[in-house]
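To whoever picks this up:

The parser on our side crashed when reading a file containing two proteins. I've narrowed it down to the boundary between the first structure block and the second sequence. Both blocks are reproduced below exactly, byte for byte. First block:
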Amino acid sequence: MVNKALLIGRLGKDPEVRYTPEGLMVTNFNMATDEQWKDKNGEKVQKTEWHRIVTFGKLAEICGNYLVKGKLIFIEGRIQTRSWEDKDGIKRFTTEIVASNMQMLDSKGQSRADGASTETPSGSADPSSDDVPF
């Protein structure tokens, strides 16, 4: 059986960095992918899909240091769904991509370390951000 996800998209916001109780670094971030087509009237239609990405260890360190909102990246990983009970006892679910590989596709020199900002026009809304990186 195969569980593999390959995505190319842009970050919706800077990665959130945290650590497990054992001290393992973890980053979480959302990335947007989009597709475009023409409808039956010949008008351009764009659909944006948002993906939750999680990275661990050395890959999390790289993502935490170099990824910023709007950056174009390639992610390879597996799809994982997990559940938990919230503070009100309601069962919640989330589906995310656990990344095993990440490649930055933007030009070199754009990183959090050098303070580069990415300005992009606004598009459809990210559930966790006011701007869309497209």
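<<boundary where parser fails>>
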Amino acid sequence: MGYIDELGELVAKRQQETISISDQIWDFAESRFQEFKSARLQIDYLKSLGFAITEGLGGAETAFVAEAGGGKPIVGFLGEYDALSGLSQEADADCHKPIQEGGDGHGCGHNLLGAGSLAATVAIKEYMEEKNIPGTVRYYGCPAEENAGGKAFMVRDGCFDDCDIVLAWHPGSINCINKSGSLANFRVFFTFHGKSAHAAGSPHLGRSALDAVELMNVGVNYMREHMIDEARVHYAVTNSGGTAPNVVQSEAQVLYAIRAPQVNQVKELYDRVCKIAQGAALMTETEVEIRQVAAYSNYIGNDVIGKQIKDHLTESLPLDYTEEELQYAAKFQKVITELDAKNLKARAKRIAGKDSEKLLAMPIWNFVGPDASGKGSTDVGDVSWVCPTGYCHMATLAAGTPGHAWQAVAQGKGSIAHKGMLLAAKVLAATAYDFLTNPELIQAAREDWLEKLDGETYPNALPKDAKPEIW
């Protein structure tokens, strides 16, 4: 029996504990920097297994690290456990059915992500003790990946500086390596302050903050023609100034997400957006307060780590799904939107060409897909700037399921999701073993990392006064 099978047995031995942790975190559904129950559940479990715990990393109450072993090399696993706002949904329901109207839900699978990385950490710790393998393993409990970039605060505080290798994964609808491509991302609040007045009796005495927000948004929309194609700018009005149309709104606020492939490109766009905001304030005779609350760096993939992950993934697939599980996945494929169904067809064609119909007949994509290059943002990118990092996706959802949607939340406690999570634990534990026992691999991963950095250093785009906060 090879080491990947032995590590798989260690994962399987504790699979009910892992599933229980994942399902409880799904039930907690705690959003950014409020994951108190989710963090405590994991901390108490890891303490019971002999891990040393350090809490409050990066200034966040819900960030922690669990460590076992000692000395070099040091291999870290990234865990996340924050939910998304407004995505409450009953488990297994194939229609939109919130548990609590307006409540939060795990539409990105972070309940699985954290529990799977935790299981990998526990398995490799036990294997190191059994085989007398030197080195240190760490589980990083990382809050607020959604919207707030919690890892950036941890990176800024040096939490990963001594790591040799970091391993991460994400739930999804395909098994693949995340080669590169996540977008750098700033989150910025623009708050306008004006002067209230009666909108009919004395409108000339008022200065509308809401007008300023609207003018800013128009200005940014005109800017879109004059930015690089790969950039993305989105906004949400978080304060419209009230619900009374007969009052000139004295305060209004808009939250922007500004994205581009490189941090310096985001900085350039950010400066332009700030000028537009200042112009809107000038036009409306209001004042604007600009507050950047989060920054995500672009992800730097590592070919050496990626190859090891992919090799183990190939060894481990396909999984043995039951007929009931296949029917379950097919049920959810029927309730995705028409646009998501078209996207699934296009994706199948990109992967399989003329054979795409074979993929579309599979409700679960039970194979190793091509390397990914996503257009979203992740704070795993910040970690990858300071340490060689490997990142992969595992199929936990029916093919075609959109992320950040109720369909993903509904599948988060199903057996398909659990199988994908346990596969991630096995593959990441085996990859950790490769680097713990082979110094040449660590050196090769470091050389690949340095080559991709090409002399650049971590951009650390967070403002100096930024701190983890609930907003």
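After patching the parser it read the second block fine. The chain has two domains: 3-182+298-453, 184-296. Residues 120 and 428 are 6 Å apart (CA to CA).
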